[in-house]
Amino acid sequence: MTYEIIALYAVSFCLIVGAIFTLVGAIGLLKFNDSMTRLHAPTKVGTVGVGALLLASIIYNGVFNGGAIQELLIMGFLFVTAPISAHFIAKVNMHRGACDTPPELPEGEEWATFDLPAGDNALLEENTTSAN
Amino acid sequence: MTFATELMNYALMGAFVIVGLCQLMSMVRVVIGPNTGDRILALDTMVVNAIGLIVLMGLSQGTRIYFEASLIIAMLGFVSTVSYARFVLRGDIIE
After folding, report:
1. What is the ipTM of this complex?
2. Is B95 part of any domain?
3. pLDDT band at B51, cuts 50/70/90?
4. Residues of chain B numbered 17-76 and touching chain A (CB < 8 Å)
């Protein structure tokens, strides 16, 4: 009996924390005024916000529905993929010129993001030689 | 028992309202976003909020059958975000 009451309190706490973090992320997405700054807020939604909601679901199903930890799969998947998509969106911002350019490198090198891939270099040389 | 159940019901209703509101706010950013990166980011946030809404729906109905739906939406959301960003970066998705 007390076990179930504690589980209900824990579920309520996790729901409130998840809702608050989701709201903070959405407000940050809406109110910040720079593309790279806006990238900061919604990553909190992907980790703590949905993570707390999934934790509430795990606790509720574990106590009242006889055990369920499959939600850990979703949590792990989101934790793994959130930095990758954030990295790609930051690369999009850099390539579209939506942020300050990074500082110059000392030895005349390029930043790796702006490098052409090796296949493109080979293709470029092939095209120039055939044109000549 | 009754107070704890009532508290969980209120927290569930509040979470539904707040996550739905966040979905609408991300939709506003999709419409007004000045750059392509903002739109991709807002769509990614909308996918994550949709996962949260489905988890909340399964919690309110007391079932576990929505787990597969949210897992599939998580995978499709990641793949669509990466392919959209890749299309903007390179003009092609699979080269």
Report:
1. 0.89
2. no
3. very high
4. 18-19, 21-22, 25-26, 28-29, 34-38, 40-42, 44-45, 48-49, 51-52, 55-56, 58-59, 62-64, 67, 70-71, 74-75
